[in-house]
Amino acid sequence: ASLVVDLQWEKNNMDHHTEVFREDGLIVRRGQPFIITLDLTSTTNLQQKLNKSKLSAQTGPSPAASSGTKISMGLNGEKEDSGWSAAASLKGNTISLKVCPSPSASIGKYSLALSDPSKQEADLGKFVLLFNPWCPDDTVYMEKKEEREEYVLSQDGIIYGGDAKNITHWAWNFGQFESGVLKASLKILNESLQHKKNADKDCSKRNDPIYVTRVLSAMVNANDDSGVLSGRWSGNYDGGVDPSKWTGSVEILRQWHDSNCKSVRYGQCWVFAGVGCTVARALGIPCRLITNFESAHDTNGDLKIETYVREDGRMVKESVMCCGPVPVKAIKIGDLTCQYDAAFVYAEVNADIITTFKLYDGLERNVVNKITVGQNISTKSIGKDAREDVTHLYKYEEGLALERQSYMHAQVCQELDLCFEDHGEIMKGSDFVLNVTVTNKTSAVKSIKLQFTSGGMFYNGKPDNETIQVYAGEHSISPGKVLKIPLKHRYLKYAPLLSTGSQLQVWALLTDMDTDARLLEKHYVSFKDPKINIKVTGNQRVGHASLVKLSVENPLPETLQECWFSIEGANLTHGEKPTRRILNVGPKETATAKFYFTPTQSGLRKLLVIFSSTKLGHIKSYVNLSISK
Known about the structure:
By secondary structure, the protein is α+β, with helices and mostly antiparallel strands. It is built from 14 helices and 36 strands. The chain has 4 domains: 3-130, Immunoglobulins (Immunoglobulin-like, Sandwich); 145-346 and 369-394, Coagulation Factor XIII, Chain A, domain 2, CATH 3.90.260.10; 415-528, Immunoglobulin-like; 533-627, Immunoglobulin-like (Sandwich), CATH 2.60.40. The longest helix has 14 residues, at 269-282. The two termini are 44 Å apart.
């Protein structure tokens, strides 16, 4: 008898919240039933045969019942020891099979087969099984609908950057449902070291979201074989893409998959995080992207962060390592016995900062500064484009810790105070003055030495070796008085930083000439980008073309070269990034471009825009669009 199988993937995918995938085929979630139908030409003794038939589901290259990667089910609807169940109903010559995967089943690609009492087996087709945040019995369950909407279904988001006092943001296209992304996400699991060592053991452990995220954490970076992204922080991105050019994960994952798993060049922290978030959401693991300002890296496990600086203020040593995943609660309460680098993550948000100065005479001296590790820990709010401060989830409010730090500070230099004045936003291309004040808190005249160094710094705290300005001077301050030193910065001096995406970092070292006590202060200057004007016209409807017009003014006193605009958006540009190159743009001139795009799904979407040039670097913006059916 011939057999016609209908996986009913369109209806099943709708029921399982997977219809948004731009993929054909059955994609279901664990702990939730799906129905397929079988049409047969012969119905002889069919009910009898069904009573004795078995349905099997298997995953991985070497499926085995002992590891839970090969599951056998009767068709009576009873739950098997594996947690899976199947029920058959017969109507005429059509069999309906209701299959319910275990809520603790391994995720991945599965094949289904039906065997009759004579052991003849019929292939019923393949499906992909994902984690299920809608299922209360699944370990990734999220009770609140709005949280599932944001952390599983939302295809775009906001990334925060800059520094703790000048927080900037830009949009990111996660695009977890775009074509090719799920395929790449599953490929990432199969390319892991764990899978290559023991494929069946790896597949059996894919029932655990902690295990899966651990694999993803290792595989997103190219430190491991076949990792998705190569990191680079040097400012030289020859042979690859400047990390700040990326506006989403889709292009990266497609390139990695289509190049036979050759690592994509290059990424930095937000790119790694964006890609990791995309893959997690694609697999059904709720995920959000967090920015930790003044993040520290404890590489020796003693919860002290050691920075080595020359006496002229330039950093000479910096260390980085990767980690995770770790429960947020364990970080807050300081449970450093928790698996997977808990101590390292704890130190990211709670640590002592000790700066060791290497003096010109070769001696070393420790200086305690006033920097607080783990500030303004930020993420996108649920359902809106506002910043949510989640610092309280990772650490307790500063209280005793600050008092202890103040005590240590007082031991070092209790008679003088050093600080930078707030300078507000600084537009790229502007000259500006940064004021530093020193307060004499004693009743005697103080003789001091002040040293300043301005230089470029990448977002991860590593200097880019671009020294902008150096100052050194000796002063006397009367009792109770305040000395103000203006540090003038010219555009032509800091211009090289703009094209590399570096911040301007200023170190200030105050030395009390009477006691030889030292006080250190560090300040960041983030430059404001010119605004990209975005105007969308036409019907924002599924299947209808819309026009977007873009313009941006050059704020610099020199001509911009190698200029281009690009757009990207989930369900707006088909996972592509159309680009328009334009002519050079002179000072105060306006660059313009226009694009057409055709939405493929309704709902609230973000259209991401980037303008790039040799002098300004990469400027990003976005607009929210409500797409109707």
